[in-house]
């Protein structure tokens, strides 16, 4: 098993773990954290599967995409946290309502 495949499999595992947590948990902070775990898995897959030249120099495009993605993820997390605080301020809870509460 090459290190690239190991990175890709670990990234896939992180994505699946984050997707499971996103579906299962009703608390909004846990959903935001799960979404960040999913994004980290995607970044790991991109970095792991980045092409290398014959001289061993990695392709800079996937790495630039990962760095840009990290910046976008930080901004999206800040927006999501501010929206969660607004929901918590308006409803008094930071959870999504259950099907029985509607």
Order of helices and strands: HHH
Beta-strand fraction estimate: under 5%
**Globular, elongated, flat, extended or rod-shaped: what is the shape?**
elongated
Integer-rounded radius of gyration: 17 Å
Helical coverage, percent range: over 70%
Query: In terms of per-residue confidence, which ranges show pLDDT below 50 for 5 or more consecutive residues?
Result: none
Annotation, overall tally of beta strands: 0
Main sheet record: none
* Ends apart, CA distance between termini: 50 Å
Architecture overview:
- The longest helix has 32 residues.
- The chain has three helices and no strands.
- It is mostly helical.
- The protein is elongated, with a radius of gyration of 17 Å.
- α1 packs antiparallel against α2 and α2 packs antiparallel against α3.
List the keywords.
mainly alpha, 102 residues, elongated
Quick recap:
With 102 residues, this protein is mainly alpha-helical. The protein has helices at 3-24, 28-48, 60-91.
